[in-house]
Amino acid sequence: MSVRKLKPITPGQRFRVVNGFDAITTDKPEKSLLAPKKRSGGRNSQGKMTMRYKGGGHKRRYRIIDFKRDKQGVPATVATIEYDPNRTAFIALVNYQDGEKRYVIAQNGLQVGQNIVSGSGVAPEIGNAMPLSDIPLGTIISCIELRPGQGAVMARSAGSFAQLMARDGKFATVKLPSGEVRMILVNCMATIGAISNSDHQLIVGGKAGRTRWLGRRPRTRPVAMNPVDHPMGGGEGRSSGGHPRSRKGLPAKGFRTRSKTKASNKYIVERRKK
């Protein structure tokens, strides 16, 4: 994987850095795994804006991803590595031996023609999904379940990975991408390897329009608002805004908002770094 810096032939391309898409093998998605994707523009069922700075953007179709990896013991061959407009990671189309096709999140180093399999007792190789009880300690993992059978919810974005640290009884200790160390049930599934497209963090839009293509509208700075609109608004001239806080008045930048009585607190061994 690599990134490309464009020649500054227009002002919008002067600082733009784009993905090289070296790993991508096709630009045509599998039709049977596409679904329509309705956009709300940040409005609720009454038509009122409940989420600001959303709307516009390029039309997309959703790729149905297999996050559960519940087809166990059946080997599958990687047919293509594809771009997915709905996520930062690349996806892989896999053909199972019984003829079924599915999309899975592509791991770093996954190659076309490679065989992957999920289930208990499989080899801990890149792309294989298995319970945490079968994975060797110290292994880099991704696409981790939080509850058995729920499907992958953690470490799914481009370049992210977690590490299996220890096992004790029915719990495994996993260091997550945020730095948090957490206990997860050993019968939860995880996939071996880090997520693909690790160069995503190096991409630079280069112009405001490219952010609009992604469906994000311009954000108004709180300091530029009036006091009626935001706690940091108002003041004579260009005032600094005072203590950083949200629109609802909650302090930002370091203020901990996690509930002290949350049931899952007992599973967190070490909190994420500030």
Automatic annotation (TrEMBL):
Coiled coil: none annotated. The keyword rRNA-binding applies. GO terms for molecular function: rRNA binding; structural constituent of ribosome; transferase activity. Keywords: Ribonucleoprotein, Ribosomal protein, RNA-binding, rRNA-binding. SMART domains: Ribosomal_L2, Ribosomal_L2_C. It holds the Pfam family Ribosomal_L2_C. Residues 28-53, 221-274 are annotated as: Disordered. One of its GO terms (biological process) is cytoplasmic translation. Gene3D superfamilies: 2.30.30.30, Nucleic acid-binding proteins, Ribosomal protein L2, domain 3. Residues 244-263 have a biased composition (Basic residues). SUPFAM superfamilies: Nucleic acid-binding proteins, Translation proteins SH3-like domain. HAMAP family: Ribosomal_uL2_B (MF_01320_B). Part of the 50S ribosomal subunit. Forms a bridge to the 30S subunit in the 70S ribosome. One of the primary rRNA binding proteins. Required for association of the 30S and 50S subunits to form the 70S ribosome, for tRNA binding and peptide bond formation. It has been suggested to have peptidyltransferase activity; this is somewhat controversial. Makes several contacts with the 16S rRNA in the 70S ribosome. This is Large ribosomal subunit protein uL2. It comes from Aquimarina mytili.
